[in-house]
Amino acid sequence: MSSGPRVNRNRLLASALLVVAGSMVGMAYASAPLYRLFCQVTGYGGTTQRAEAGADHMLDRTIVVRFDGNVAGMPWKFGPEAQQITLKLGETAVVDFVAENTGPTALTGTATFNVQPDIAGAYFNKIECFCFTEQKLEAGERIQMPVQFFVSPEMADDRELEGTRTITLSYTFFPVVGERQPVAQAPGDETGKNM
Fold it and tell me: In this structure, are 11 and 105 located in the same domain?
């Protein structure tokens, strides 16, 4: 007649396992946004900071900012109009990147970014940026996308960046996940089906 306590223990164990499994699923969904928030706050992994306005002061120390543009998995040309600029710490600058869809159909892409050296991301502040915003380009369409930014004067106080004279801001465009990509069709086949 001891099946009652055993059944209760089994139910309790099953409930506890369900709570643990549910918690693990919840943590899996929360981990990406939490990691992104951590990177934005700390600059970890070259993640830049967001700013509403430029710095409140400038220093005489200058920094060279290089720009890089890449495309992964889509027929676009993408890159900066200027390869690099020199500016003072705290000085606000605007650089245009250009994207062109060289493919035969409209495509939507989105850009990710990083800063090198990674630790400099904590001092690289973007006021305006096209990153993580979907950009739809028709076949042959070309657009300019500005990035407005400054490198914080506080970088001068970071001993780990004392000898750093160059920062690289790099963007990579990827196709938007779930967007239907064109399928190659046979020459003269208007329906896209081979007979």
Answer: no
The structure's pTM equals 0.65
Helix (H) / strand (E) element for 32: namely helix 3-42
Task: Dump pLDDT digits (tens) for 38-73.
Answer: 444 544 444 556 666 667 888 999 999 999 999 998
In this structure, the answer to whether residues 25 and 96 fall within a common structural domain is: no
Range of the domain at 119: 49-175
Residues 100 and 185: their CA atoms lie apart, in Å, by 23
Question: How many residues are recorded in the chain?
Answer: 195
189 in a structural domain: no
For residue 4, give both structure tokens.
């009652």
For the chain, which ranges sit under pLDDT 70?
A: 1-3, 23, 25-54, 178-195
Rounded CA separation 26/47 (Å): 25
- Which two structure tokens, joined as six digits, stand for 92? 């606000």
Q: Count CB atoms within 10 A of the CB of residue 71.
A: 19
